[in-house]
Amino acid sequence: MATTDYVLSERAVYEILHLENPLPEKFPPFCRDGFLFLQARHLLNQSCRPLHYFALVDSETGRADARFALFIRDDWAVSPCAASFGSVEFSEDLPDEELRRFVGEVITYSKKLPVQGLRIVNYPNCYLPTDSERLHAILLDTGFAVKYEELNQHLIVSIRSFTEQLHNAERRRLRKCQQAGFTTRVWTNPDVDELFGLVRKARLRKNLPLSMNSKELANLVSNFKSDCPVFTVWNGDLLIAACLGIRVTEDILYYFLPADHEDYQNFSPSVMLVESLYSYCQFERISLLDLGISTSQAVRNEGLIQFKKRLGAVESPKFVFEMRF
């Protein structure tokens, strides 16, 4: 059941809208297409409840110029529940005082919830550098602290070929895959059991946690088919590498759940896999290929960091903020 709570700002230009477990039609339109992870269809697909949605709505246009969602999980208010990030998304034209008032209202309401505090995972700074800096300053000013600074890495997609920016060692590995006759394709109707089996074995081998189970993966692939194409590398009929490419925005593709076959580690088919994503980005005019974080709660994975560097990756911080009540 949805509830609303309107709070007029002092300037009477914006209304702060709060919705609890809203129906899809109750979400106000946002000022731009924005991040997939903050759209109603993705928020409602995340499993935690209750969902509290906040929007800073222009009283003249009815459009939200800022939005934020939190869930309750393990006695914490968290943003997100099940996504790469949550946080506050806002119009670049929104004045700092309005953004600060919006964050303040979120804090005030969150303190009424039966939680220990509020934890916010922000998007990587490379997504929106100016907005990230503005939000960072306001969150610290309103009482948040940086819990972790993760290291994110991404590729800048241009007309340059993928191989031009590769380190010699990775170029040799790519050539080895090509000479072996491996092929790449977007798997339009993936066998989720086969895909999950590859992911599960790869993450166990690398001592990495599984961020979702097979049912959740099937849900993601089914409900977000156009936003989450499955990229693959094959040796004949054998699946040897795969990942999801999540279209976070029209201009950003996120490399998610990469996995490779244990018998093909000498080939490093992940290089060929990333090449296929890079080519897809060029075709779709996507300028940023996000390779994800290479740290876990700020602990560096040096092997992963160096691998991405050899692909030509650029580093960017990704902050996790926390406020204890």
Automatic annotation (TrEMBL):
SUPFAM superfamilies found in the cross-reference section: Acyl-CoA N-acyltransferases (Nat) (SSF55729)
Taxonomy, superkingdom: Bacteria
InterPro entries reported in the protein's UniProt record: Acyl_CoA_acyltransferase (IPR016181), BioF2-like_GNAT_dom (IPR038740)
Coiled coil: none
A GO term, aspect molecular function: transferase activity
Pfam families hit by this protein: Acetyltransf_6
Domain BioF2-like acetyltransferase: 171-294
Keyword Methyltransferase: no
Alphabetical UniProt keywords: Transferase
Protein name per the record: GNAT family N-acetyltransferase
Organism: Larkinella terrae
